[in-house]
Amino acid sequence: MKITHHGAVNGVTGSCHQLDYEKHASVLIDCGLFQGEDSGPSLAIDFDISTVTALIVTHCHIDHVGRIPYLFAAGFSGPIFTSKASACLLPLVIEDALKVGVTRDQKIINACLSLLAKRIVAIEFNSWFNLPTSNNKPTAKARLQRAGHILGSAYVEIDIGNKPNTHRVVFSGDLGAPHTPLLPSPKAPYKADTLVIESTYGDKNHQGRKERTQTLKKVIEKAVADNGVVLVPAFSIGRTQELLYELEQIIHNAAKNSPWHSLEVIVDSPMAANFTTEYRNFKALWDDEAKKRLAKGRHPLNFTQLHTIDSHQEHIAVINYLSNRKQPAIILAASGMCTGGRIVNYLERFLSDKTTDVIFVGYQGRGTLGRDIQTYGPSNGYVHINDRKVTINAAIHTISGYSAHADQTGLIKFVTGMRKKPNLIKIVHGDDGAKNALAAKYKEVLGDEVNFQVKNERCKVKVHLINTFLPPRASLHRE
Asked: In angstroms, rounded to a whole number, what is the distance separating the alpha carbons of residues 50 and 71?
């Protein structure tokens, strides 16, 4: 068995991990796009895929699936295993990624989507399936378990070999935060011999849900008091739906004469609208709280104050409309890190206005516009948007409790909740500080009492910081 990391090791983007489970057969876990400082001059697959027989997709965020078209171009022709919900979302994500970053040629897009449709294999959660082998004799099997990060998200368990000598490798993908709206929290696997785990918030703990909801309510009430706009950069899948869910709850609980009942909530993203529809289609995956709201006749993702913007023409019209009126509004638009999408146009127009408020509710990667606004905004600095210098006069807020990622406590519980602990933990998908902090915490919590049989030798838990496997292209920084 060998694990090679082709992304998400010097940062939080480009997730792609290769597991060799026999001499001539391997599987990729995700194949994501690099963003921010992690991105380089080429998007081509620059590693050997001659032994890759399959791809497993943990979830449909672009930093986990964005390189799939390039994987096809490199000659990959194996199955793409993913959950049923992700199987519905993946074509939407890939089509949007192609239109935004590759081509507007519909023939090329359709050809890629046709390939994708032939490759996708939808898998039920908690169901074992065999991985392809070079000799058609099963030597490895896998299953998906709910990760609670976004709709359809999964962590992956892979058993290599036959009982009683199986070795179980667990890839966490992105784990959800506990008590988030809509989706149940992830449950720890029964066991892992080797664990590859994310560390986005390995050095932080989030606000509690009640506290963060109150924070969101107070920030918005203060923000709209001057009739300005509130800009919320949010990923189209996951974060947008959770925010709508929370905003519906605030409006539902507001007094009858409260301004909340007349406050417009604008989702300016066709993709977010499509994903919200899929969230509604997969209500069976919602948690008990969300199902109870539905039973009471409420519509947490489709309430009266909600307006969805579709075409680019409508998008421009909304910006002009908001520029010329003196009534407040909340705008949710992608991308969540402000690396593209319609949120950039809103920021270019409104970031210099003193009546504007920007609320960050998710992680902002190094080298992204979102991180720059977070960094320079409090001192009224500036950023460059579309080659234009924009002074930041808007108020900048960060509510980390709305992250869709597990915090340090959640990442620790994912391991301590296992009946049989891993003997090797590989920490990926995090900045150096987050990885180091999580490694130190694992050593503190697991200590010398945790011992495992490895190659007939007794050994303590090993924690590896993975940061040396990226190809030269992906380690480039901005000039």
From this structure: 12
Which whole-number Å values give the CA distances from 381 to 36, 232, 376, in the listed order?
Answer: 20, 19, 5
- Is residue 29 very low, low, confident or very high in pLDDT (cuts 50, 70, 90)? very high
What lies within 8 Å, CB to CB, of 349 at 6+ separation is 319, 323
Angstrom distances, CA of residue 470 to CA of 2, 41, 42, 367: 16, 14, 14, 18
Element (H, E) at 437: helix 432-446
Whether pLDDT at 69 is above 90: yes
Going by pLDDT thresholds of 50, 70 and 90, the confidence category of residue 312 is very high
C-alpha–C-alpha distance, residues 325 and 149, integer Å: 37
Q: ∠446-450-454 over CA atoms, to 5°?
A: 125
Buried b / exposed e over 356-384, threshold 16 CB at 10 Å, is: bbbbbbbbbbbbbbbbbbbeebeeeebbe
Q: Is 168 left (phi over 0), alpha (psi -120 to 50) or beta?
A: beta
Crossing angle for the helix pair 209-223 and 239-253, nearest 10 degrees? 80
CB 224 within 8 A of CB 259: yes
Whether 14 contacts 474, CB under 8 Å: yes
Amino acid in the structure at residue 294: L
Checking if the pLDDT of 471 tops 60, the result is no
Encode pLDDT of 396-413 as tens digits. 999 877 778 899 999 999
Instruction: Report the side by side order of strands in the sheet with 167-171.
Output: 129-130, 140-146, 154-160, 167-171, 194-198, 424-428, 462-465
Angle among Cα 372, 373, 377 to the nearest 5 degrees reads: 120
* Radius of gyration for the alpha carbons in the chain, expressed in angstroms and rounded: 22
Report the residue count for the chain: 479
Give 463's pLDDT tier (boundaries 50, 70, 90).
low
In whole angstroms, what is the distance from residue 435 CA to residue 29 CA?
20
Q: With contact defined as beta carbons under 8 Å apart, do 265 and 305 qualify? A: yes
Q: pLDDT tens-digit profile of 226-242? A: 889 999 998 888 889 99
CA distance 187 to 65: 24
Distance CA 32, CA 131 (A): 21
Closest C-alpha to 294, from 275, 306, 307, 281? 281
Q: What is the pTM of this model?
A: 0.86
418-431 tens-digit pLDDT = 999 998 899 999 98
CB 458 within 8 A of CB 450: no
Decide: residue 127, CB within 10 A, 0-12 exposed, 13-18 middle, 19+ buried.
exposed
